């Protein structure tokens, strides 16, 4: 007898749309830092002058971002967490002059697929606020009136719970994830003049700590002091973009037409002193 030769059969299956959404969402929001970053950017883009980030048990239990921005109009509730829906651009041409932190319209949709998401919001033109609860596909499951000032509160519960492996890794590396989140949030604290940003952490035992805060200052200098302290501020040198001298143009073979006045941007900031 001879062994029968079996020809392998390859069958292609279309992945379920729900599974596709979960897979893609896991590539948009990869870490705790990414989740907080997306929500803080939305708050600042909404014109908020106060943004509070609140985490329970390093973000495992919940992440809450509260702002006093413009809020969400009721006409936009249904599309708020749908993929590729955004108020920040209308078409591809708008990308040339985009002046917001984000515009893809994927953050809230992705977060819905990764955790339990709820939003309390009140638009400036509304008399009362609204609490919205969403399912993992971004559809509203509950809507009820709520008392609050104009602005928006986004609450994430059990982040990454829909991805067991990611969730386990998140809990295993809690302190690293939390540290990276603070590092990213610090950058927004530095550049956001006129915006008060604070971050508080509530431990699993209920102890509350303020881990980061700025004071809605109108200067970068004050923001640096708030984040890094007065001593660190003393070790920095402020710099500003200025017109070059004629000798500099000659040295690099440039003409006055190549001056800073012809560049569509201006650079200012602070740099460490080269004393160490």
UniProtKB/TrEMBL annotation:
Family recorded in the similarity comment: Belongs to the DNA mismatch repair MutL/HexB family.
Xref: Pfam families: HATPase_c_3
TM regions (residue ranges): none
Any one GO molecular function term: ATP hydrolysis activity
Example GO BP: mismatch repair
Domain of life where this protein originates: Eukaryota
Gene3D superfamilies (UniProt xref): Histidine kinase-like ATPase, C-terminal domain
Any single Gene Ontology cellular-component annotation: MutLalpha complex
Protein name: DNA mismatch repair protein S5 domain-containing protein
Organism from which the protein derives: Capitella teleta
């Amino acid at each position: 007898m001879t062994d029968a030769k079996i020809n392998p059969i390859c069958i292609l299956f279309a992945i379920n749309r729900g599974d596709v959404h979960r897979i893609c969402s896991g590539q948009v929001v990869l870490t705790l830092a990414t989740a907080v970053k997306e929500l803080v950017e939305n708050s600042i883009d909404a014109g908020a002058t106060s943004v509070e980030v609140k985490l329970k048990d390093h973000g495992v239990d919940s992440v809450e971002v509260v702002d006093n921005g413009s809020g969400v109009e009721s006409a936009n509730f249904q599309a708020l967490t749908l993929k590729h829906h955004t108020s920040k651009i209308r078409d591809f041409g708008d990308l040339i002059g985009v002046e917001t932190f984000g515009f893809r319209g994927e953050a809230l949709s992705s977060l819905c697929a990764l955790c339990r998401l709820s939003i309390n919001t009140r638009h400036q033109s509304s008399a009362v606020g609204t609490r919205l609860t969403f399912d993992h596909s971004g559809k509203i499951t509950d809507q009820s009136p709520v008392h609050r000032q104009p602005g928006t509160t986004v609450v994430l519960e059990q982040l990454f719970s829909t991805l067991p492996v990611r969730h386990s890794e998140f809990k295993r590396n809690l302190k690293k994830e939390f540290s990276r989140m603070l590092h990213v949030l610090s950058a927004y604290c530095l550049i956001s003049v006129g915006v008060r940003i604070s971050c508080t952490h509530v431990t699993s035992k209920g102890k509350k700590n303020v881990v980061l805060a700025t004071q809605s200052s109108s200067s970068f200098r004050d923001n640096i002091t708030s984040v890094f302290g007065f001593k660190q501020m003393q070790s920095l040198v402020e710099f500003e973009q200025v017109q070059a001298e004629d000798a500099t143009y000659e040295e690099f073979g440039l003409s006055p037409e190549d001056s800073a006045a012809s560049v569509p941007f201006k650079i200012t900031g602070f740099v460490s002193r080269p004393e160490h």
